[in-house]
Amino acid sequence: MLSHVDAKNRPAMVDVGGKAVTRRTARARALVQLTPEAAALFADGELRSKKGPVLQTASLAGTMAAKRTHELIPLCHPLPLDHCQVEARLGEGGVVCIEATASAEARTGVEMEALTAASVAALTVYDMVKALGLGTTIREVALLEKTGGKSDFRAPAASPAPAPAATALRRTVPARAQKPSRTR
Fold first, then answer.
1. Calpha distance 63→103 (Å, rounded)
2. Is 6 a catalytic residue?
3. Which residue has the higher pLDDT, 15 or 65?
4. Which CATH number fits domain 22-148: 3.30.70.640, 3.40.50.300, 3.30.2350.10, 3.20.20.70?
5. Where are the domains of the chain?
């Protein structure tokens, strides 16, 4: 039975009033496949675009989004997060690995906050590099683990995060980057 529907199959917020307040944590991941042109901008642990430092901005956007999850997902409870951390790094093959961790002392879990943080961070990477071409893809958004509440969860076949690149990517920039038809 789905938890967010009532007896008449209508959307409903879950009543968590009777649940115990416990330490809740969750960790989620998003993978973003960059175009070769975007990956070529990687230098000194950061991707630089005309809009600014991509990975730092994505981490900040993910943290901000986690705090507003209840405003974005209709039936989520507003939670006072105790901690949220979003890390983004470029791995082999031009894959940006974003991992988001959220925690709170609450009556309900923080899985949606961690997933929202990872998702918005991935969308931010996309937004910041799209001027180089629209071929960047968000390959995966997944819950990796959660603790607290009735049960703990760990993704059974969670693939390992891509390893950071062993050697720096070439810093060549294409002679002429593709421009989007419209900018925001």
1. 12
2. no
3. 65
4. 3.30.70.640
5. 22-148
Alpha carbons 137 and 89: distance in angstroms, whole number: 16
Which one of 44, 82, 127, 152 is the catalytic residue?
A: 127
Instruction: Pick the closest to residue 110 from 118, 97, 101 (CA basis).
Output: 101
C-alpha dist (Å) from residue 26 to 56, 100, 101, 111, 134: 21, 8, 6, 5, 31
3-class SS of residue 161:
coil
What average pLDDT score do residues 141-169 get?
74
Structure tokens at 139: 């390959």
pLDDT, tens digit (0-9, with 9 covering 90-100), for 74-127: 889 999 999 999 999 999 999 999 999 999 999 999 999 999 999 999 999 999
CA gap 51, 49 in Å, rounded: 5
Let me know the angle formed at the C-alpha of 163 by 159 and 164, rounded to the nearest 5 degrees: 150
Q: What is the pLDDT of residue 1?
A: 59
Token pair 């990872």 is at which residue? 118
**Percent of the chain clearing pLDDT 70 (strictly above):** 82
